[in-house]
Design goal:
CATH class: Alpha Beta
Shape: globular
Order of helices and strands: EHHEHEHEHEEHEHH
């Protein structure tokens, strides 16, 4: 049986990504951030020794995603529906192809430790669901083992209740594991926190392993007018 890591990503086109950051800065700057996050995320997790997939949207940007994946990831369009529909579809497809454990992450957490992904796969040997909560009320990572839990449909994606509502779907028949909380970067305040965190990692002698993002952090973001 195969362990599968799925990266869910949207092509970084101005006006279509990081909209809350764009409102406070500019659509062009937000797209540059999204591009840095995407490429750093793909580099970061390319060392995870499992079957790796890049689930992308929109479908017409497949040639662009092929270029950044650089043969390190298999590609699949995310398909129709809301985020929950697309994640559930990906998990079901991979399990139908023989995967026993499937872990999903996005491209909004450029400093998410690789160890969280390794730990998620370890936990799924004994658990059926593993979640890495996000500090904004969602989650940075979710993993499923052996079957698909009822946690993807009819959620208010992008809100502060996603993690809470996800947990409420899991009754006592589901064995769940929990990872330490981490953070997404969606707003200007999140960007400022990221600046401090990356600087602190460097001061502590730790490589943040997100070089494109780190270069952008050295620049002052534009101020929306």
């Amino acid at each position: 049986m195969t362990d599968v890591l799925g990266i869910f990503a949207k092509w970084p086109e101005p006006g279509r990504v990081k909209t809350r950051l764009a409102e406070a800065t500019s659509p062009e700057f937000a797209a540059r951030v999204a591009d840095a996050f995407l490429q750093d995320t793909l580099d970061r997790f390319a060392v995870v020794a499992v079957e790796r997939w890049l689930a992308f949207t929109p479908a017409e940007n497949e040639p662009d995603f092929l270029a950044v994946a650089a043969d390190r990831y298999r590609l699949v369009p995310q398909g129709p529906g809301d985020l929950g529909d697309r994640m559930e579809g990906f998990v079901r497809q991979r399990m139908a192809s023989g995967a026993e454990r499937v872990v999903l992450v996005g491209a909004d957490s450029p400093t998410l430790p690789i160890e969280h992904v390794h730990e998620a796969f370890r936990q799924l040997h004994d658990s059926e669901v593993v979640i890495g909560p996000a500090t904004d009320g969602g989650y940075c990572l979710i993993g499923c083992g052996r079957s698909v839990p009822p946690i993807f449909a009819d959620l208010a994606w992008g809100t502060s209740t996603v993690f809470r509502d996800t947990i409420s779907r899991l009754d006592g028949s589901w064995r769940m594991a929990l990872l330490p909380p981490w953070y997404d970067v969606d707003t200007l305040d999140d960007w400022r926190f990221l600046q401090g965190h990356v600087a602190a990692l460097r001061r502590a002698g730790i490589d943040p392993r997100c070089p494109r993002t780190e270069r952008l952090l050295e620049q002052l973001p534009p101020v929306a007018t």
